Amino acid sequence: RHIGQAQGALALEQPLRAEPWFSREWLRAYLTERDRDMGLLTDATAWSWPLVRDNLSRGHAESLRRLRHDQGLFLGALDRLPRTVCHFDLHPANLFAVEGQTVLIDWAFVGVGALAEDAAVLVADSVLDFHVEPELFGELFEVVRRGYLDGLRRAGWEGPAELVELGMCATLGARYAWIGPALLAAVVAERSIMNRRPIAEAVTCWAQTIPFILAHADRARQLA
């Protein structure tokens, strides 16, 4: 709700606040660094590793390829949404509750982005960084969506509620297409640690996010 209030107020400013040191096209720049493992989705050997076979469904391979293929659709949808000032790294380790307010640190990536983009990042990174159990992904999405929309309304933003859902779903579709291939790459490389956790724990957690990311990407396609 606090994030929605802040970003809703910023979205209503005319002209939108912008500083010369703001990041530019941050999400597109981020995604250019995330394609290196996509070829593993069609590598039968990668899918045959026991840790992969026990946690990831090979039936998702085509959907994961389509996720990357439709990146332009998701980014285009985000481009058409109302603009606001975004943090781009919104996860629980950067948030603090202080006397009824929310304090947000680590503004290294700050720039202009789409409404609800940060809200989606809060959901996904809460799970991917092991703050929330993966089976709660869908419930957390709804909690954040409702709270964010409530904050926007309190700030005076009166746009359609569907735009918040579209912003969140399109962000999940665009930003997290690399998760499946990254899991395959980590196992094939025989890494012992991934995201500061034992590889088996990380793969088990991250693999459970994939059906949620794919489902919300489908919803983004419908809304777009």
What are the main properties of this structure?
9% strand; two-stranded antiparallel ribbon; 224 residues; 58% helix; mainly alpha; 11 helices; single chain; 6 strands; globular
Topology:
Elements: H1 2-12, H2 26-32, H3 44-48, H4 50-55, H5 61-69, H6 71-80, E1 83-86, E2 95-98, E3 101-104, E4 111-114, H7 117-128, H8 137-155, H9 161-175, H10 179-188, E5 193-194, E6 197-198, H11 199-223
Antiparallel strand pairs: 1-4, 2-3, 5-6
Describe this structure in words.
The chain has 224 residues and is mainly alpha-helical. Helix content is 58%, strand content 9%. The protein has eleven helices and six strands. It has helices at 2-12, 26-32, 44-48, 50-55, 61-69, 71-80, 117-128, 137-155, 161-175, 179-188, 199-223; strands spanning 83-86, 95-98, 101-104, 111-114, 193-194, 197-198. The strands form three sheets. A two-stranded antiparallel sheet has the order 1-4. The protein has a two-stranded antiparallel ribbon with strand order 2-3. The protein has a two-stranded antiparallel ribbon with strand order 5-6. A hairpin with a 2-residue loop joins β5 and β6 (197-198). The longest helix is centred in the C-terminal third of the chain and has 25 residues, at 199-223. The protein starts with a helix and ends with a helix.
